[in-house]
Amino acid sequence: MGVEERASPWKLGGLSWRELNRRTWARVYKDDVMGKAAQLSYFFIFSLFPLLYFLASLLGYFTQTGPELRESLLHYLATVVPRKASALIRDTLEEITAAASGGKISFGLLLTIWTASFGVGAIISTLNAAYGVKEERPWWKVQGLSIVLTLTLVVLVIAPLALVLYGGQIGDLLAGRYRLGEAFTAAWDIIQWPIVLAFVLLAFALVYYFAPCVEEMRWQWVTPGSLLALALWLLVSFIFRLYLRFFDTYSMTYGSLGAVMILLLWLYLSGAAILVGGEMNAVIEDAAAQAGVDEAKQRGETAPGEAG
């Protein structure tokens, strides 16, 4: 019991918050996280439209309100993605959907999910670098993991979208069934947003747990790294949107390619946020191992006591 308590990432491996931040940013610089984020942005933009097409097609298969959910997806994506990049995503998705034929859609779904998994594969590679380990799993296992994680992330996207779209109806149903009154209905409008946030944190937790080639990693629903990644992602998205609102120089510099450059830069910043969170978790793990926690792994170890 004592060992598990000490192994909790919220013990920070015995580090103070100040020392943890210092070591994290030192690792960010040493591991060239910003350079790896640039590599991620390439795979992300390569994977984004196939993933969105897969989502749109999946929504159309399994629900009569597929168009509503797709509009909900694009609407809430627009709250984070810069305006011009959001318009580019919407226009491109509509073109892809219009060009797809019904006879080829099943094969198209398989192809798009395979392509979309490349982004997750890039995250696996870069998080391995954060933990200082080499990929020792067979290529088919890594590819399978990429596909499974991609499908899981799709579910974690659809579920909160459905909750947002039908949240009012769900709240009214629960209030009527259990006679909870109007107070519950009003509270439900607020409660559903932390639930949506929980889905996002779960997505980060799954990526940080399964992606690195590190054995016997301890499952944590929320880690300092996942909270940091989420906070950085929301912060850079907000600041970037604010900057573009008042100082949109990309359209003047790149002309018709301005929206593409804005989308690419936003994906770059998003990838950097994911990697910085992974670096923080890796630093905590390494510090815990140095402090003598048996189940913790030092940097470069794929398992406790085994050098990678």
Summarize the helices and strands and which ones pair or pack:
Elements: H1 2-7, H2 17-30, H3 33-62, H4 66-78, H5 83-99, H6 105-131, H7 139-177, H8 181-210, H9 224-246, H10 250-254, H11 258-290, E1 301-303, E2 306-307
Antiparallel strand pairs: 1-2
Helix pairs in contact: 2-11, 3-4, 3-5, 3-6, 3-11, 4-7, 5-11, 6-7, 6-11, 7-8, 8-9, 9-11
Description:
- By secondary structure, the protein is mostly helical.
- The protein has one domain.
- Helix content is 77%, strand content 2%.
- It contains eleven helices and two strands.
- Strand 1 and strand 2 form a beta hairpin.
- The longest helix has 39 residues, at 139-177.
- The radius of gyration is 21 Å and the shape is globular.
- Determine Rg (CA atoms, Å): 21 Å
Q: Within the largest sheet, what's the order of strands?
A: 1-2
Structural class: mainly alpha
Q: What is the makeup of the main sheet?
A: 2 strands, antiparallel
Overall pLDDT level: 75
What proportion strand?
under 5%
Q: What oligomeric assembly is this protein in?
A: single chain
Distance between the termini: 28 Å
The percent of residues in helical segments reads: over 70%
Number of strands: 2
Number of helices: 11
* Count of the separate structural domains: 1
Shape: globular
Residue runs with pLDDT of under 50 for 5 or more positions: 1-6
Order of helices and strands: HHHHHHHHHHHEE
